[in-house]
Amino acid sequence: MKGLDFDFLKFDVTSAVDIVLVALLIYYVYTLIRNTLAVNLLVGMLIIAIFYHIVDALHMKLLTMIIEKFMSVGIIALIVIFHPEIRRFLLLIGKNAFLQKNKAWWGYLFGRKEIERNNLTRIKPIIDACKTMKKTRTGALIVFVKFYDEQFFANSCEVVEAKISKRLLESIFQKNSPLHDGAVVISENKIKSASCILPLTDNDQLPSQFGLRHRAGIGVSETTDAVAVIISEETGEISYAKQGRVRMNVSFGELEKLLNKDF
């Protein structure tokens, strides 16, 4: 029809790439905020936006002006409210998390099976220590980070800088050890620090039996690229936290596979 422009309906390769990129962006944002308080915050912001359009349509000038003032600082509010999620999203991009997740495939292409076997050798002392601590019901929190942020950890940790060993991990988490409270941080194939005080998660949907150790492990996985192995002092059960989500009652076979993938 004359006067109508249907150019926006044209579909080409660029449009397909555009749609795929937007879909990936939405997917990654969803994975970052799923099962976190950010979902409730987004719902609240959506309700405010709908309410604004209603009062504007009803010509409620005073209420409309108040909401407009509130929404005018929306970008700053978003940055403050979603700081942990924004940090994790930037880490996801800057540290090639997507490629890390698929490193088994890339390793197959570029012949890195020998590196994976060596990685299993490095993981063995950690698995052996977890077996002992599970048996003795020794509470433990072991955090693995790909990139050690000295500013983030140094202020609340005792620097160790030691080779990973079964006996050292067991001795750190013994109840009479001065370092048993807090977390051990492992990076670059070393025990970097111990007795670390970590931020607790704000997730209010967690099981009631989760104590400070579980909440700290989940919290650090929300705000950084870290993964955490948590051993319950009450039951000896092993949990695995990553990206704010926790897998409970992990077997040693599963733990080995998870650490080989993420560590």
SSE blueprint:
Blueprint: H1 13-33, H2 37-57, H3 61-72, H4 74-81, H5 83-94, H6 97-101, H7 103-110, H8 113-136, E1 140-144, H9 150-154, E2 158-163, H10 166-172, E3 183-187, E4 190-196, H11 212-223, E5 227-231, E6 238-242, E7 245-247, H12 252-262
Parallel strand pairs: 1-3
Antiparallel strand pairs: 1-5, 2-4, 3-4, 5-6, 6-7
Can you give me a brief rundown of this structure?
It catalyses: 2 ATP = 3',3'-c-di-AMP + 2 diphosphate. The protein has helices at 13-33, 37-57, 61-72, 74-81, 83-94, 97-101, 103-110, 113-136, 150-154, 166-172, 212-223, 252-262; strands spanning 140-144, 158-163, 183-187, 190-196, 227-231, 238-242, 245-247.
Features:
single chain, seven-stranded mixed beta sheet, 263 residues
Describe the structure in your own words:
This protein has 263 residues and is α+β, with helices and mostly antiparallel strands. It folds into two domains: 13-108, no CATH class; 112-262, DNA integrity scanning protein, DisA, N-terminal domain (YojJ-like (1). Helix content is 56%, strand content 14%. The protein has twelve helices and seven strands. It has helices spanning 13-33, 37-57, 61-72, 74-81, 83-94, 97-101, 103-110, 113-136, 150-154, 166-172, 212-223, 252-262; strands at residues 140-144, 158-163, 183-187, 190-196, 227-231, 238-242, 245-247. The protein has a seven-stranded mixed β-sheet with strand order 2-4-3-1-5-6-7, with helices on both faces.
